[in-house]
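BUG: 3D viewer hangs when loading the predicted structure for this chain

Environment: internal workstation, default settings.
Expected: structure renders.
Actual: progress bar stalls at 90%.

Input used:
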Amino acid sequence: MRGRTLIAVVLGAFVLVALSIVWRRTIGIGESERLAQLDARRTGLEGERARLESEIRDASTRQKLGAAVESRLGMHIPTDKQVVILPRTAR
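Structure tokens produced before the viewer hung:
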């Protein structure tokens, strides 16, 4: 009985170690897939951010802002007679 018990214990320990390794690898594969999804999402969000920054730059050009100011606020570019240049005072 002594030899059989020792073999059973060693075999049981081997099975437990093998199961723990398989379990750990399964968790690692799942985490790797989750990280890949997050990386793909981050890449997509960075692309969208670049697109939005480009749209902001395009929308804030002087030509587009000038048209919006003229139509919405009723403002216009002043004529030379409307511009007053104030002298600087000495401090």
